[in-house]
Design brief:
heterodimer; A: eight-stranded mixed β-sheet; 24% helix; B: 292 residues; globular
Chain lengths: 617, 292
């Protein structure tokens, strides 16, 4: 998911009270298999009414027990119930707003399971786990034994809200983004030999998603003129349904979720990139934005393919991108398997040289690796998907053909700068923590991981970093790794010392660093390091006779001599992006006279243009 | 007695020769823009001199990196020696701008007459001409600024409203508004020259005369404006590319390049003035011949 704040306003402070207990707690499952074991599969027939914004649907759920523990019950997420009123836990925590978009209490969302029974007809009963009924459970008459499957028949009604927090309708009902729209199983995890529990949490404002892989066969029935994009691949031509509607059938294998979006106004842009068919749906008035999104997607697919392996582990043939219309910004900036949405940062009037839309695009695209395929638990380890996606965004933005986040009139600003700005506002937050427990979700889950991973990349070098990332993404494709798994891969690829330092100081710790030049005189230099974070950095002394450099270790005295000191620079290549203040890393004995005079000349030129009226009058 | 000193037949080269051979307006315009700019630039940048001890700031300016520049500015913001001087400079910028504009309008009459006089004007004649046309040209300038402001605001507002209904329509209206402002500018600019050419200080009649000039010499007007604007754009582009290519520490070559291109840009502006007034003279001379 995209965080609303970019650039200097990036820090998202969300104080989250302690939450109700989880049904289970996370534990890594088996290492990935390609193709993966299909555990939770859904066959859904959904009929959407654009007037009431309601989905009437039936679904067949097939759940396979791949653990050694028998499963006595089933737990379902009913996410839409978090939007049933302004009084739900989600809303109370959030404001009720999401990324600056308010909730319309007159157009709420909810979901109701009308019927649930086993395939043999035996009826089941659902009971709420939380007050808002975002999580429900049902006892099974007979436990699902290891290696066996259970098949359920369900009927449900989903009322979509006016676009809010990634899902709903907009444009007077002509646009719909259906996300988190169907009853969805939690993840059964084996806690000890022969004993397991469901890993599922009530839906809260910072809690995102966690699910098993499965096959989704979804039929969406819509008015005939509507165009639809969805997870997976369209199966044949749409079939005529009741009332002049058309039914569009999609199939997606090896995915953890299913979302779709539709509108009668959608135009389509298509490209083949890295062997993947990319389909972009957009409103015709946003064609120029759509071109930018497509270009970033195509370039991003190539970059991420190089860094993390092929899109979808080579198993996904298509990628659908939804550029949401102007009044549906709340549905933009969200990732689903083989589909993502953009548009939360598509600000009208912003020049194309300000490339937040491209950044949003490559961020959501990165989630196709970090969460859709490497399916970490976004509730328990939010930094594992958002943090890696954010790091990937900063890295990809450096590589995009048209330049980084801002490339206006010869001036540039990197995307990493926005992460650094956010991190510097609240640097002592650990990255690790459950989503609802993080005091500053934006920093812990997004900014600090991006800055920390970039520092790591510069410390160990791109080659070693690539070895770590490709080992991680290769090993855990279609798996559910957690922090310990990331640590283990880091130990293997970068060494225990680096891995322990990264996790102890940054993932779990609150260590910070501010290396600085305190004073510089002609023959005297005083430098110091504030904060507990140890990063050995080079120090360069520039004297009148030349420059000398030595590494400043954390725990050893530093000595270096230079004649007639002109300037001193700590970490001149800015390896330690985590350094809270890069401006105090270097200092000159006297002001840089040529640079000062050049600035005078530039200011004269600007004022001349002002005083001569631009030469027009 | 005034007459066209460079006829449209002489082309752009003739106009430039006229500007060079009668350099008073050029020098005057350069000084009016440069003297306050020089003083204010020194006043503005002197208090910031301590900032140039921070290499990240220089690196930001040199590489045009907002990352470096913003972080360095955040760090150095409190390190200003001579804050009152900086505050005074900030206050003087709008006042200097206004003064320079009014002074330029004051001299505008003398400038235009310089380019239509048979022989170069003495300082006394130049000042007399400036004084004679000042109030009319000032009124014309005020009307132009008000009209341009209104048109600009209307374009933005209507463009935004239309864009909220249908984005391409909003874009279309913004383009239409932009073109209308350019045409208005052309009209008022020509009115200034028509006023001097007809020796009539009435602003409304000058605006009507401008329409006559444009209607009678449409191709020449368009060519003159297009060529001079293109030349100015080329000069500005050259200045920008040239200074960006120079290392940041090469302040003197940068200063020379900037000042040479500034003078060139001003010279081209004056060549357009000379062209406009000569076109107006030509149009009305032929009208008077027809009348006879």
């Amino acid at each position: 998911m995209w965080r609303i704040a970019v650039s200097l306003m990036l820090a998202v402070l969300v104080a989250v009270p302690a939450g109700p207990p989880a049904v289970g707690t996370s534990r890594p499952l088996d290492i990935s298999q390609i193709p993966p074991a299909e555990i939770a599969s859904y066959a859904i027939a959904a009929d959407y009414d654009p007037n009431s914004h309601q989905i009437t649907a039936s679904q067949t759920v097939t759940y396979r027990n791949v653990t050694e523990a028998p499963i006595p019950d089933l737990v379902f997420h009913l996410y839409l119930n978090a939007f049933s009123s302004s009084e739900t836990l989600w809303m109370r925590e959030a404001g009720p707003q999401h990324r600056g978009h308010g909730f319309d209490p007159d157009a709420p969302g909810w979901i109701r399971v009308d019927e649930i029974r086993l395939a043999d007809g035996a009826s089941l009963t659902l009971s709420a786990i939380d007050d808002d009924e975002t999580l429900v459970r049902s006892d099974l008459p007979v436990a699902v034994e290891p290696g066996e499957s259970v098949v359920l028949e369900m009927a449900f009604t989903a009322q979509l809200p006016r676009v809010f927090a990634r899902t709903g309708w907009a444009d007077g009902g002509d646009f719909v983004m259906a996300g988190q729209w169907f009853p969805k199983l939690g993840v059964w995890e084996e806690m000890a030999p022969g004993a397991g529990a469901w890993n599922a949490y009530p839906f809260r404002s910072n809690n995102e998603f966690y699910a098993d892989f499965g096959i989704y066969e979804v039929a969406v029935t819509l008015p005939a003129a509507w165009r639809v994009g969805a997870t997976g691949t369209l199966q044949g031509e749409p079939a005529e349904g009741d009332g002049g509607k058309l039914t569009h059938r999609f199939r997606a294998d090896h995915v953890i979720d299913f979302a779709w979006s539709a509108s009668p106004h959608f135009a389509v842009m298509e490209r083949i990139a890295e062997g993947v068919r990319v389909e972009l749906l957009y409103y015709p008035g946003r064609r120029s934005m759509a071109r930018r999104v497509m270009q970033a997607t195509v370039e991003g697919l190539a970059l991420y393919g190089d860094w993390y392996g092929p899109y979808g582990g080579g198993l996904y043939p298509e990628l659908t991108v939804i550029l949401v219309p102007e009044d549906a910004g709340g549905a933009g900036g969200m990732e689903y398997p083989t589909l993502f949405t953009v548009g939360v940062l598509a600000m009208p009037g912003l020049p194309a040289c300000v490339r937040f839309l491209e950044a949003e695009t490559v961020h959501e695209l990165a989630h196709q690796w970090f969460q859709s395929v490497i399916a970490t638990n976004e509730v328990e380890d939010p930094w594992l998907d958002e943090g890696f996606a954010e790091y990937s965004t900063a890295r990809a933005m450096r590589e995009l053909g048209a330049g980084d986040a801002v490339t206006c009139a010869g001036w540039t600003m990197t995307y990493l700068f926005s992460d650094r700005s956010a991190y510097r506002m609240d640097p002592s937050r650990p990255m690790s923590g459950r989503a609802w427990e993080l005091a500053n979700f934006g920093v812990s889950a997004y900014a600090k991981p991006a800055v920390a991973l970039t520092t790591l990349e510069r410390l160990v070098g791109e080659e070693a970093m690539s070895a770590f990332l490709s080992a991680y993404t290769g090993r855990y494709a279609f798996g559910h790794p957690n922090e310990q798994d990331v640590h283990a891969v880091m130990v293997e690829t970068l060494g225990r010392e680096i891995a322990d330092w990264f996790f102890d100081e940054l993932v779990y710790g609150d260590a910070t660093l501010d290396a600085r030049v305190v004073a510089i005189e002609a023959g005297d230099l005083e430098i110091e390091r504030a904060g507990d974070l140890c990063i050995p950095v080079p120090v360069t002394l520039i004297g009148q006779e030349g420059a000398t450099t030595a590494v400043w270790e954390c725990d050893r005295p530093f000595e270096l001599e230079a004649d007639s000191l002109v300037a001193a620079k700590i970490d001149p290549d800015a390896t330690a992006v985590l350094d809270l203040n890069l401006a105090n890393n270097a200092w000159r004995h006297t002001p840089d006279q040529p640079a000062w005079l050049r600035t005078v000349a530039d200011v004269i030129q600007v004022l001349q243009i002002l005083f001569r009226g631009g030469g027009l009058w | 007695v005034v007459t066209a000193s460079a006829t449209p037949k002489d082309g752009l080269r003739g106009l430039i020769r006229l500007v060079v051979h009668r350099p008073r307006p050029w020098v005057l315009r350069y000084l009016l823009a440069t003297v306050p700019a020089l003083i204010l630039a020194v006043m503005l940048v002197s208090p910031l001199r301590p900032w140039f001890r921070v290499p990240l700031l220089v690196q930001g300016l040199e590489t045009r990196s907002l990352d470096h520049l913003l972080e360095a500015l955040e760090f150095t913001a409190g390190q200003i020696t001579g804050g009152p001087l900086l505050a005074l400079a900030m206050l003087l910028i709008p006042l200097s701008w206004l003064l320079a504009r009014v002074l330029w309008v004051y001299f505008e009459g003398g400038v235009l007459v310089t380019y239509v006089a048979v022989t170069p004007l003495s300082w006394r004649e130049f000042i007399d001409a400036s004084r004679r046309w000042f109030w009319s040209l000032l009124l014309l300038g005020v009307i132009w600024n008000v009209v341009a402001l209104l048109m600009g605001v209307m374009t933005i507002v209507i463009g935004a409203l239309a864009g909220s209904l249908w984005s391409p329509f909003g874009t279309f209206l913004r383009i239409v508004g932009g073109v209308a402002i350019v045409l208005l500018w052309l009209w008022f600019s020509m009115a200034r020259s028509a006023m001097v050419a007809r020796r009539d200080r009435n602003v409304l009649r000058a605006l009507r005369s401008a329409v006559t000039v444009i209607a009678r010499r449409p191709v020449k007007v368009v060519v003159l404006v297009t060529v001079t604007l293109a030349l100015q754009a080329a000069v500005l582009w050259g200045s920008r590319v040239g200074t960006m290519a120079l290392p940041y520490s090469w302040w003197f070559p940068a200063l020379i390049l900037q000042q040479v291109t500034a003078m060139l840009a001003m010279g081209v502006t004056l060549a357009r003035r000379a062209g406009e007034v000569s076109l107006a003279m030509e149009a009305f001379t032929s009208e008077e011949s027809n009348d006879v």
